[in-house]
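Repro case for the chain-ordering regression, as requested:
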Amino acid sequence: MALNETLQDLLERFRAGKTTALARAISLVEDERAGFQDFLHEVLKAGPSTARVGFTGPPGAGKSSIVATLATAYRGRGEDVGIVAVDPTSPFSGGALLGDRIRMNDLATDAGIFIRSMATRGSLGGLATTTKEVMDLMDAFGFARVLVESVGVGQTELEITAAADTVVVVLVPESGDAIQAMKAGLMEIADVFVVNKADRPGAERLVREIRQAIHLRSGSALRDVPAHHGVDLRRLKRRDAPPSAPADPEGTRQLNDAKAGWDIPVLKTVAQSGEGLEEVLDAADRHRAWLLESGEMEVRRRARARIRVQNVVDRELRLLARRSADSGGRLERGLDDIQRGAETPYSVARTVLEELLGSETPR
Ligand SMILES: Nc1nc2c(ncn2[C@@H]2O[C@H](COP(=O)(O)OP(=O)(O)OP(=O)(O)O)[C@@H](O)[C@H]2O)c(=O)[nH]1
Ligand SMILES: [Mg+2]
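-- result from build under test --
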């Protein structure tokens, strides 16, 4: 996987820690320009080393406020921080700086903080494959911390587990009760729960409900309940658990199978005043230490690598198929035939596949 001269030059400046080279590398990856995978291959050889913390939750929950405050705290410890904000309406995306959100922009003037905002692919708020690759770039660049903020809309929240080692789920009293959080699959992905806007009514109740839900899920609420009439409540609960969980097309769920040994903290914060954020910082540190000690970090990185390989293979196959369909006007001729009523989208697709795969074409 040899790099051309331009990319080799970029690689050298990237390795020398030039922020302009990081910015250029990110554009290279985002735009999927020629050679971007070879470039990623070169920079990722060293393996992951940074602490990746993801923040997800409903729109307006205070994710950016929390990220901004934490980033400042990390800088106070002398650590460099990379931030990826995934949301077109994020305050990190230059255009949308309004009112008190401008505060976030102050961060951008600190040389030890690198902020990149990315649009979501599609409207669902999920992370594009390139988002994870941009995080990899920040990791390779040598930031001590990489924070990712992603607005959570239902199942796409699961994707953040494929991008971060530690997932902080931010909820607010207005975002509903713990049952809703369970239904949305948040119990599966949260390593730390934060109930922000604790200056508003209902925060204490939400904290209590989430704690109960966590205990119920881990079985500890039932641990002391003896089997009754031959019915083991623990087994009942386990059998009941899966149907309430959402489907997991990307296979991210497997990242979270082995959470035993980690007690999910439920913390209360007021992001505006900074109240409770010290505890969030501490919880993220403790979770990272637990990941490393328990071996769970290796499990997560392996699962993440698996997803990444699948993503890249999928992406390449898709490109190959597009090119094959377009080659020699094949697709346009097929469309003409469909319009004449001589072919259907299925028969044209089959021909395209046969040209691409030959005898391997699935029936
Ligand atoms: N009352 C109160 N308001 C808060 C608190 N934290 C944040 N806010 C306000 O809530 C609004 C949204 O905060 P953000 O930090 O932008 O929230 P976000 O989750 O990043 O929002 P999106 O990225 O748009 O989904 C802002 O007006 C904040 O000032 C808090 O603890 N209490
Ligand atoms: Mg935000």
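Ordering looks correct now. DSSP finds 14 helices and seven strands in the chain.
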